[in-house]
Amino acid sequence: MCRSIKTLRPPVLPEEATEEDIRAAALQYVRKVSGFRAPAAHNQEVFDRAVEAVAQATAELLDGLEVRGAGARRAGQGLSPDPRRRPGRTGG
């Protein structure tokens, strides 16, 4: 399962990670840790909260990382608008 979690930071990911990318990685992580691909109905709420918490932590991590040698990515220089980009992000 965890093999499908990909690195979400530049330069490994050529573009900035989208909300979709982050949520998919969070879902895979929670599936692996819980041992459930799909939780039973009585576990659905806690499973969903865990996915959201991991996605939030991942977004905060990516927002805070400084990628050396990223050049134009720093401070949002030279980036073209991307409709998939998460709101509030200005570059890696």
Walk me through the structure.
The protein is mainly alpha-helical and 92 residues long. Helix content is 40%, strand content 0%. It has 2 helices and no strands. It has helices spanning 19-34, 44-64. Helix 1 (19-34) packs across helix 2. The chain starts with 18 loop residues before the first helix and ends in a 28-residue tail after the last helix. The model is unreliable at 72-81 (pLDDT under 50).
Which structural class do you get from the secondary structure elements? mainly alpha
Morphology = elongated
Average pLDDT, to the nearest integer? Answer: 79
The percentage of residues in β strands lies in under 5%
User: What's the helix count?
Assistant: 2
Number of strands: 0
Q: What's the helix-strand series? A: HH
How many strands, which pairing sense, and closed or not: the largest β-sheet?
none
Query: Uncertain spans, ≥5 residues at pLDDT below 50?
Result: 72-81
Q: Whole-Å distance between the termini?
A: 27 Å
Alpha carbon gyration radius:
15 Å
Level of helix content? 40-55%
Structure at a glance:
The chain is mainly alpha-helical and 92 residues long.
